[in-house]
Write a structure and sequence with these properties.
alpha+beta, VC0467-like, globular, AlgH-like
């Protein structure tokens, strides 16, 4: 019997020609993947005109010294729900450790902690997520469309959203300019 391979703590990269335009050049940080399904946070695109200070304002939180970082398009599911992927040096209510590589928090306490300068040292914010039911991601991975790479925290925290897709492929030794959008048949 073949052992299942789960992708928590890795990145999914959309291949050129991804059939769903919402995922063109997507970089998805896989935060949970097991036999019941998968959840990932998109970090390959930011939401125009929306910064971290805008989110804090919606919750009545003064930004303090927190930078007005971009807010990422996390995915098409629950696009008004916020998530913070962050370093493992902070944990709050409901924080999930993702394969020992990063953490995921989705409660207001992480926003307050960041604004007060008491939060995680490294973080990115997103609205929405990408989700797959049991077996759905495995089915998608059996067809062309996605490429997975190890979860690199430098890519996560130190690379601009516009550069993540290209840098993630390069780190895997792949030049995405050489990839084709369609496959052939023999």
């Amino acid at each position: 019997m073949e052992k299942a391979v789960y992708l928590s703590g890795q990145f999914l990269l959309a291949m050129p020609g991804m059939s769903d335009p919402r995922f063109a050049r997507a970089v998805i940080a896989m935060c949970s993947h097991d036999s019941t399904g998968a959840v990932g946070i998109g970090l390959g695109a930011t939401i125009d005109g929306l910064g971290f200070h805008d989110l804090l304002e919606q919750f009545g939180i003064a930004p303090g010294d927190a930078p007005n970082a971009p807010v990422h398009f996390g995915g098409p599911v629950e696009p008004r729900r916020g998530f913070v992927i962050h370093s493992l040096d902070w944990a709050g209510q409901g924080t999930i450790d993702v394969a020992g590589r990063w953490a995921l928090s989705s409660t207001i306490d992480v926003l307050r902690a960041i604004a007060e300068g008491k939060g995680p040292s490294r973080w990115v914010v997103a609205l929405g997520y990408a989700g797959w039911d049991a077996g759905q991601l495995e089915g998608e991975l059996s067809r062309p469309g996605w490429f997975n790479v190890l979860g690199d925290t430098d890519l996560l925290f130190d690379t601009d959203a516009d550069d993540r897709w290209t840098h993630a492929f390069a780190a895997a030794g792949v030049d995405p300019r050489l990839l084709v959008a369609q496959t052939g048949t023999a």
